[in-house]
Specification:
This protein has about 110 residues and is α+β, with helices and mostly antiparallel strands. The chain is built from 2 helices and 8 strands. The strands form 2 sheets. It has a 5-stranded mixed beta sheet, covered by helices on one side. Strands 5-6-7 form a 3-stranded antiparallel beta sheet, with helices on one face.
Length: about 110
């Protein structure tokens, strides 16, 4: 699986907070890499691109698998699922693509 990527560690700690939102800015990336609502109990982080969201969810699943055998499988209609030692991993979908409307609003924070 090859796709757009950001390091998972970039999302450990927000770069700045404003109006109940936590913003993540990764090195080498111009602009905001991800945004999370501080009040969200699931800690879902919105990112710009569905491929980046999938890749980050894959990195998180692989980390949870530890040193065990990790694999990626493709299901019907191009869906992906992850497995650890041959057993499917229940996905949390911590990273989700945000809408264009969301990103216009988030990008406005950088110009303040």
């Amino acid at each position: 699986m090859s796709m757009k990527s950001l390091p998972l560690a970039c999302f450990d700690k927000p770069t700045f907070e404003e109006d109940g939102l936590e913003f993540f800015v990764c090195n080498g990336i111009h602009g905001i890499s991800g945004v999370r609502k501080k009040s969200d109990p699931a800690h879902t982080i919105l990112v710009r691109d569905p491929d980046i969201a999938l890749n980050l969810n894959m990195q998180a699943a692989k980390l949870d698998c530890g040193k065990n055998r990790f694999s990626v499988h493709t299901g019907y209609a191009g869906t992906f699922f992850f497995a650890c030692e041959g057993k499917e991993i229940a996905r949390q979908e911590r990273f989700q693509p945000g809408s264009k409307t969301d990103w216009k609003r988030f990008d406005a924070y950088l110009s303040r």
